User: Fold this.
Amino acid sequence: MLRVDDLYCERARRVLFENLSFAVAPGELLQIKGANGSGKTTLLKILCGLYEDYSGDVDWPLDAWPLFVGHKPGVKDQLTARENLKWLAELYQPGTHTGTIDDAIFAVGLRGFEDVLCGAMSEGQRKRVNLARLFFLTSPAWILDEPLSAIDVDGVKLLQERIGFQLNEGGMVILTSHQLLDVDHEVRHLNLSAPS
Amino acid sequence: MLLETIKRDLLVTFRNPAEMLNPLVFFVIVISLFPLGISPSENVLQSIAPGVIWVAALLATLLSMDLIFRSDYEDGSLEQMTLTQQPMLLIVGGKIISHWLMTGLPLTLLSPLLALMLFVNEQGIEAILLSLLLGTPTLSLLGAVGASLTVGLRKGGVLIAILILPLYVPVLILATEMIKTGMTGGDYGGHMLWLAAILALSIGVAPVASSAGVKISLSH
Assistant:
């Protein structure tokens, strides 16, 4: 259970959020909405522990690390899809089988691209490599920053199915997106107001 | 984890060899400018050789230092590295070791050739090799601290130089003295011990400091 209590954060002398409190239980999906610059990414970074310039409580007793997919590609151009994911596996789940990684590459529709350098891929394909981690790493929480940007209709469908799977497994998903999500589960919304 | 990081960073650099070659080419060019600019006479070159080789090594290392975290910061890999149960210390340690393998070690291996060009005698070349072998790891370690603190800035290059060059001064003084002693046939064991002591101190402090630096850079 994630509990955020009385969060206050300002950036560039603008108050991003004040008295922000919410909770997310296992198996719940929280979609954070808000205008550009309203602090969605900052909020996600606070939840991951990447950004620490805030006051308030973030209470998150997790027994494993959350998976964070940010704006940045998170893949190295000089490595192939397989090498990139192998490195990620080494970081999160050392000893992951290569077969498992290949299955994840197939699952995101990149069969035949396992040994292609990510630098030679299109933006959408890189995004798919980035999202492939959701198909082989297990984590009680996913934190996804605009996961639907740059991927095509099939990709969106694929990702939504995978989010449904994660929720069924009792994991929580927190994401930002401007798009409407089409999942079988209830989508909770958190609206961030424009900075004042 | 340490080995995995080294393997990954070496692989990334080998796929993009210009990054690795630039400091080496810089090192060779700077040193070859001195005979042209000052004097090709044996006496002059011999007397300036220790300083020229070491200053060139310092600058070449500094030039390459920004690369240690820059691309990982820009593509988001660095974020991912801090978000796992893997100790940041090992990851940063691995990155420093691979940085040394790609700059310090090749500089050391190239140095005898350049020393010959500057009329350094045999004992002198031995001293140059040993001083670079003991000194360049320190340069990579200390440089990583500067690089970790400036990686979040768009133009960190000059700032790294200002932060790190003063820390390089003791290494520079000891190393050039060691080479001078070596060239005149003296015993430079004491200098070597001092360089080794500075290296040991840097191994203890620099990885911890640069891990903290990376976290600070990421949280802004």
User: Anything to note?
Assistant: The longest strand of chain A covers residues 14-24. The CA atoms of residues 38 and 194 of chain A lie 5 Å apart.
